[in-house]
Design goal:
Elements lengths: L1 H6 L14 E6 L11 H14 L3 E6 L16 H14 L4 E6 L4 H12 L3 E5 L6 E3 L2 E3 L3 H11 L5 H11 L11 H11 L15 H19 L4 H4 L2 H14 L4 H13 L7 H4 L18 H7 L1 H9 L15 H5 L24 E6 L2 E8 L9 E9 L2 H7 L12 E4 L20 H5 L6 E4 L11 E3 L19 E5 L4 E4 L3 H10 L10 H9 L26
Parallel strand pairs: 1-2, 1-3, 3-4, 9-10, 10-11, 11-12
Antiparallel strand pairs: 5-6, 7-8, 8-12, 9-13, 13-14
The chain binds FE2/S2 (inorganic) cluster (FES).
Length: 554
């Protein structure tokens, strides 16, 4: 009676308390997260489906992480969202949960939470914005901004032209419509089997997104009845499917970190090296920015993710179970391709096999680093150059416009102390714009190395996620300006050409930077965050505790 009485203050009739499944709808809606601002409407569609199938839907807020506004980086808060949502799902009397996400970190954060609880869960991502349109051409969010920023620096665009262009870019609800991190993670959720087919690609304003959300509401009630829990869907086979699909769509390097973190919650054995070995025979099929030409709206009309998965055929585990109750193979077996310029065939791919994410190792990255080959300049994938070192992106930005900066096209630009502990939160600072001096000479790309991340919408020959990070005492902290560095992507090598005894002497003289906070979330985060090669989860959050409230069964 206690529970019912207060719930009836919302005007529910008594029969909704007859024992029907109670379905939580976790929404990351917020006006501070513009990519998620329409999720409140998506939730209404989910509710229709839940009512229709005989469930009782209750919407609740989970921390909204807006990539564009949160400082120092939304990534600092992914684990906080995961922790908050996990506790809310467990502590409330729910039988199943629908996860509504959009902007980059909200998708992995909610999947991590649902994985640790283990109640039946289905995801509905918010969908991409419509294509940006500027001066008669399509422009992609993020990707275009990086280019316009460089054009402004190089004097090819005025401030007024930039201000006009930005209004042409974001012209509907939805998340970034390039194959950036949001589109990538929506695709990963679908490839893992956690959202209904086509959910990743319907534009945010497309009516089919709302009918799919209604269908998800119906499905979660069935999933509760059949006890279809995330661990039965997100198996090792499902992760292998996701990694291969990520290569085929030219997805973001951020997927590496997020998939490792989700797998860590489920206890699925997944290693950084899996992201290299599993994609060596997978070509990039999808011709989307930032690697290619088109945008998510085009991808949708060309056939969406099911068409890509069907195209990949035997490279995927067709038997992996999904939220539909059917296998991945059954879901996609009839998925057509409508535009071969957007989704290319296996025998004539957009880029050849093995051009996705490569995992590098060597004395500069003993625990690994990654590079997105499809976003890199081919002539720089084997390169030896002298280091120019900056201890923060801000230090670089202060001199980036300096005409006397000692830099040329062979220089290897190092931006460090940007890792999970260092910045903190591992921001997307690795793809710093080229210095004005090189831009004016027409140089389009140089090798950059960083222990931070790169936006999925960005491009360039950028080595990312160097582990261990500089702030944890990794070798990146020991590099000095003028040192020679070898990058050999075909051989998967990243090395600092300095003798071991010299590196040992530098290590002995190195002192760690002061911790960025002495209290609060940032203190907790920097005390417990793990390195990029295992997904940057907090050490005490890996694994799962189940759905029961109270004493830990372990
Ligand atoms: Fe939210 Fe790109 S800023 S998805």
């Amino acid at each position: 009676m206690n529970h019912r009485a207060w719930m009836r203050s919302q005007g529910f009739t008594p029969e909704v308390f007859d024992g029907r499944p109670v379905i939580g709808i976790a929404t990351t809606w917020s006006e501070l997260a513009p990519c998620n601002v329409h999720l409140h409407r998506v939730a209404e569609s989910v509710k229709r489906g839940v009512w229709q199938a005989g469930g009782f839907p209750l919407e609740f807020p989970a921390m909204a992480l807006g990539e564009t506004l949160l400082r120092p980086t939304a990534m600092l808060y992914r684990n906080l969202l995961a922790m908050e949502a996990e506790e809310l799902i467990r502590a409330n009397p729910l039988d199943g949960v629908v996860l509504l996400s959009g902007c980059d970190k909200t998708t992995p954060g909610l999947l991590m939470a649902a994985s640790s609880v283990g109640l039946p869960a289905i995801m509905v991502t918010g969908g991409p914005m419509l294509n940006g349109k500027y001066q008669g051409t399509d422009v992609g969010s993020g990707t275009a901004v990086w280019r316009w920023e460089e054009d402004l620096l190089a004097g090819r665009m005025t401030e007024a032209e930039c201000a006009f262009a930005e209004g042409c870019m974001a012209r509907s609800n939805g998340h970034c419509m390039t194959m950036g991190t949001a589109s990538t993670m929506a695709s990963m959720a679908e490839a893992l089997g956690m959202q209904l087919p086509y959910s990743a690609t319907w534009p945010a304003v497309d009516a089919r997104r709302y009918s799919t959300a209604q269908r998800a509401g119906q499905r979660i009630v069935d999933m509760v009845e059949n006890d279809l829990t995330p661990d039965k869907i997100m198996t090792r086979d499902a992760f292998e499917n996701a990694i291969r699909v990520n290569a085929a769509i030219g997805g973001s390097t951020n997927a590496v970190i997020h998939l490792l973190a989700i797998a860590g919650r489920l206890g699925v054995q997944l290693e950084l090296d899996d992201f290299d070995t599993l994609i060596r025979d997978v070509p990039t099929l999808v011709n989307l920015q930032p690697s290619g030409k088109y945008l998510m709206e085009d991808f949708c009309y060309a056939g969406g993710l099911p068409a890509v998965m069907r195209e990949l055929g035997g490279l995927l585990h067709a038997g992996a179970l999904t939220v539909t109750g059917a296998t991945m193979g059954e879901n996609v077996k009839d998925a057509p391709v409508w535009n071969r310029d957007v989704i290319m065939p296996m025998d004539q791919p957009f880029q050849g096999a093995g051009t996705g994410t490569a995992v590098l190792r060597g004395n500069l990255a003993p625990d690994g680093a990654v590079i997105k080959q499809s976003a890199s300049s081919p002539h720089l994938l084997k390169h030896r150059g002298r280091a120019l070192v900056f201890d923060s992106p801000e230090a670089y930005h202060r001199v980036a416009a300096d005409e006397d900066l000692d830099i040329d096209e062979d220089t290897v630009l190092i931006i460090r102390y940007c890792g999970p502990k260092g910045y903190p939160g591992m921001p997307e600072t690795a793809n710093v714009p080229l210095p004005a001096k090189l831009l004016k000479r027409g140089v389009k790309d140089i090798v950059r190395i960083c222990d931070g991340r790169m936006s999925g919408t960005a491009y360039g020959t950028v080595v990312l996620h160097v582990a261990p990070e500089a702030a944890a005492g990794g070798p990146l902290a020991l590099v000095k300006t003028g040192d020679w560095i070898t990058l050999d992507v075909p051989a998967r090598i990243l090395s600092l050409d300095v003798p071991d005894d010299e590196l040992a002497a530098r290590k002995a003289a190195w002192t760690p930077p002061p911790r960025p906070a002495s209290r609060g979330w940032t203190w907790l985060y920097t005390e417990h965050v793990q390195q990029a090669d295992t997904g940057c989860d907090l050490d005490f959050l890996t694994g799962k505790s189940g759905a029961k409230v109270g004493r830990d069964p372990h």
